[in-house]
Amino acid sequence: MSVLLSAEKLSKSYGGVRAIEDVTLQISPGEVGAVVGDNGAGKSTLTKILAGAVRPDAGSLRFEERTVTFHNPKDAQRFGIEMLQQDLAIVEDFNAAQNLFFGRELSRFGFMHRKKMSHVTQEVLGQLGVMLSDKSIPVRFLSGGQRQAVAIGRVLAWGNKLIILDEPTASLGVQESRQVLEMIKRMRSDGRAIIVVSHNMEHVMETADRVIVMRRGRKVGDLAIADLQITDIVHLIVAG
Amino acid sequence: MPNKLGPSLPSRLYASGGAALLGVLGASCCFWIFSSVFLSPANLLNLARQVAVVALVSVGMTFVIISGGIDLSVGSVVGLSGTLAAAAIAHTQMHPFVGAMIGLAVGTCVGIINGVFVAFLRVPAIVTTLALLSIARGVALQSTNGQPIAGLTSSFSFLGRSDVLGVPVAFILTALVYLFGILILHFTAVGRHVIGIGGNEEAARLVGLKVRIYRLCIYGAAGLISGFAGLILMSRLGSGQPTAGGGLELSAIAAVVLGGTRITGGQGTLIGTFFGALLITILGNGLDLLNVGSFFQLIFIGVVLLVAVVISRATEG
Fold this sequence. Notes:
The structure holds two protein chains of two kinds. By secondary structure, chain A is an alpha/beta fold. Helix content of chain A is 34%, strand content 28%. In chain A, strand 1 (5-14) and strand 2 (17-27) form a beta hairpin. The mean pLDDT of chain A is 89. Chain B has helices spanning 9-15, 18-34, 41-66, 74-92, 96-120, 125-144, 157-161, 169-187, 189-199, 201-206, 211-237, 248-258, 270-289, 294-314, and strands at residues 163-164, 167-168.
């Protein structure tokens, strides 16, 4: 498998505090990498650097074997990298299509092409296995799982190479979490690379191919899930 | 309705401007019963002329409120732009068109000042625009010594007093501004962004929208439209009145909220605002016809605003 994105010795400090130090990792197409670690281990900083939301103090990124620099999320998006923020960045009063295309509306002769945006949205949500009975209602009236589907649909629609999900099941119930895990599997089968930050070891074990363990800003483990038990991961998280 | 997702019927009715339309019809019926002249052609023409100023100001106010802001300075801007345009025309013999351009420029400048303070210096909108309410009114009064400016050339009465095919020019221009505003707000990506910024500013920033630039432009546009309303009012009054437009911010906010725009932003329609402005104007006109004094009308408009916001809150979610 060829490498899609590789990070070399990334470091980032805030003030005097080291958020991450010398982190090196790789992700390939069709692979789900889970980033785990305790609070403050540097998971968010690491993923935000990969998505262009944070600039590293040191280290480099290579995307499809070219050295790249992301000054902002837009730069990363140009390469097909999309990140789902932990706090759902959706507009509650917008419907699914309006959210999916927010900031990227399709226009024709200067006016919005609503029909097309609605069609694409249905397709994308269909890929995630979600059907909305009424596609015109504001997302505030949808269930937690459906709302998450809209948010994931956003990154799925635009991130055709790498999708980064920060705690995608954190605020969801059991049934809804299950839906999201299915969505992740579907996205992987399309050949996208996926990086998931998660606290839920069962979800990690179920969906990920590889687990990257962070502890106090350093990568302390990078192992294939197939060889692991949950207790092994937990041990790495707390003891390194 | 356990299985039916989505907003409730009253909520939909309110948000689409239907409640304001019902209000217009209801108020019209009442005044029709109690006043023989309410539906006379002369009074309808009068209404069409009266609605123009508050309806215009409410267009800018809709954009501001829907994006999560507020603009209390619009009434003062109406007074200031009308006064300065009148002064330019009457005192320096400027061509009325140039004078009108000055009026529009003055309104836009005040709007941009609002925008700079709100978007870039992070002063709360309510404070910024309250300050500009005072400043703009002060400039209008100071520059005229509080005296009206008379001696306008007759060519300037076109905006506020003349008719085309029996329809007041002011009303036609207002309708055109609404048409343009509706196209922008509801049919272009820019309009969608304005609503989205009011709905979730953080999300707008995350998707890469230049939120501060949007806000600057929104307040600037509100100033421009208020300047235009100022010209129309000045033309209708036939003189530059430094006190003109006082209290108009209240009518405009009431019109916008009555029309279904959420006071905290993120939801609303311009057509609803039009019905809201029409309702406010009809209430004022009808109370005039019934010889209800203007002092009482002040009380009345305040009550209407409160009721509108309560309805807005009650239908949320």
